[in-house]
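Q: Could you fold this chain for me?
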Amino acid sequence: MRVVVAPDSFGGTLSAPEAARAIVEGWNRQVPGDVLITAPMADGGPGFVAVLHEALGGELIVDTVPGPYGDPVPVTWLKVGATAYIESAQACGLHLGDRREPLIASTAGVGRVLAAALASGVDRIVVGLGGSATNDGGAGLLSALGATADAPLDAGPAALDDVTTVDLTAAHARFADVELVIASDVDSTLLGMFGATKTFGPQKGLSDDQIIRVDAILDRFVEVVCGPTPAERRIADMPGAGAAGGLGFALLVLGGTVTSGIDLVAEAVGLRDLAATADLVVTGEGRYDFSSRAGKVVFGVARAAGEAARPCIVLAGQVEVGSREMRAMGVESAYAVADVTGLERALAEPYPSLVELASRAARTWSR
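A: Sure. Below is the predicted structure, expressed as structure tokens.
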């Protein structure tokens, strides 16, 4: 039996390559004769650069930039020919620490990485968006690329409360001859009921009152950057503008185009061709829930399996989706590490716990 193993990272416990190795190890324990092909995946969030480096090769370049609260953090970006691949979460991700103060968190570090890529002479930059701790509409990124204003752009959304003018001339000039691609894990807009702040603000630490305040601040920021009319403000309503707390909006303002992060990675690793030659496709993530429905790795892998008429199963840390909903996503079955080992052990010993789960799944699915 031929099995393609294409998981996402498991939250902050396992990278996608580590998860793939654990699944292979567990499967081989139960059925050593099966052929397993690994294709670690990402959707633009954490692991984006590592997965693309494994698939495409290229040169990894390390820089140190300000994290979301100004502390220096190391960032690794990938250069393949004249294309740079950047993972925004490395500079402003939730996983960088336990601190949750989105009112003052900034995306300036992401802008610094873009500036380094531009200085290297590339003519195409792909920015993976997802997993951010920030909600500043990308103001910090714009500042790091030369934008100026009558209020600090690099001190989080709270500092934008009094902004009345923003000059993007210098930032626009840097991308005059550079293609900018936004690889997003979500298609949310920037503002409103289904926008970045309302949808993702709570997980970043925003209270209900702060959500209302920040959304109003970003609404004003859009007006200052783009103009007051609906036609001028339409960038904020574009799918992906709300990705990574509004980083998508800032990159769209600079001329970027949005693409699906999972589709970009799937093409790089040749997922559709791999699925077409497989008997089964196995994917996974830390928490398989309703947010997996669009733009995420599980959804993209299941779709590729469905296009090839191959069954797809999910191995996850936790499963919060019912059988009817998962089948609507193209998933035959889903299995939770927490159900096998308990949540405490799943978090404390993620690798051996996933090995055990994979072994049990192989017992059911292998011929």
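A (continued): The mean pLDDT is 94.
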